[in-house]
Amino acid sequence: MGCLCRLFPKVSKSIRPFLPPLSVFVTSLCVGAPLAININAVMSPFGLTILLLVIAFHLSAFVLGYVMSGLVFHKAPDVKALQRTLSYETGIVLISHVLFTFMYLFVYLS
Questions:
Q1: Full residue range of the structural domain in which residue 100 is found
Q2: Which end of the chain is more exposed for a tag (fewer CB within 10 A), N or C?
Q3: pTM of the entire structure?
Q4: How far apart are CA 64 and CA 96, in angstroms?
Q5: Residue 91: inside a domain
Q6: Contact of 86 with 61, CB cutoff 8 Å
Q7: 39 found inside a domain
Q8: Strand, helix or coil at 1?
């Protein structure tokens, strides 16, 4: 993105708002495809255990992303904005994973 910003600043500025949602969407597809392929394992009691572990992992990443960035960058002038950004980027993955998991399950079971 750095070269794109320097060489094509207008293009970079116009696509910048779409990059975080695009990142979440592509990550969700990368996670959702293997889940859809292994639907029998996901629907088993073991699958529920894995889903709960994934949710706990991402929730802890959401909280730790906020706390740790505050500790590391405490002298930055915009530390709260940085904390929110890192927390959002780590926590939003949880929402996308769960959302697309249920979408795949709904499509498969329909």
A1: 45-110
A2: C
A3: 0.48
A4: 19
A5: yes
A6: no
A7: no
A8: coil
Our count of domains for the chain comes to: 1
* Pairwise CA distance, residues 77 & 81, whole Å: 9
Check: CB of residue 35 under 8 Å from CB of residue 101: yes
Residue 36 CB partners (closer than 8 Å, separation 6+): 104, 108
Q: Is residue 62 part of a domain?
A: yes
Pull the structure tokens for residue 37. 């392929």
pLDDT tens-digit profile, the chain (110 residues):
556 677 888 888 888 888 878 877 887 787 778 777 877 877 778 777 877 877 787 788 788 888 888 888 888 888 888 888 878 777 776 666 666 666 666 666 55
75, two tokens: 């002298």
Alpha carbon 39 to its chain centroid, in Å, reads 21
* DSSP SS3 for 77: coil
